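[09:14] KT: can someone run the structure on this one? pasting the chain below
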Amino acid sequence: MITPRLKVQAVYDLDYNVEAISHSEFGNQKELRCTDGDRVFSFSNEEAVMFRLFFNGFQLEETDIIRNGTVTNRCFTPRVNLCSVADSLYACNKFVRDSASRIIARS
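[09:31] RB: done, structure tokens below
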């Protein structure tokens, strides 16, 4: 179970050219930040992708988009506080992929 105060923020950058979750408008995801109000956890590279997939099982709902130059922060909150392994796998399998099997973020 996750804390009800959890906030997830996906940080995209149009100038970030490392293979990652990509978005047609915002560029590639370079960081994932999670906060419970008291602490902030930051993940990058493969960790950011894995935690983004994990948290997607909690049915993330976009709450805000903050743009600053080439950087875009997409803010999310979970709709559910508990998810099973099956829920998480189902959510991971719903990610859209391109012809090279790279994950493409939905708008």
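[09:33] KT: thanks! The mean pLDDT is 84.
[09:34] RB: yep, looked fine to me
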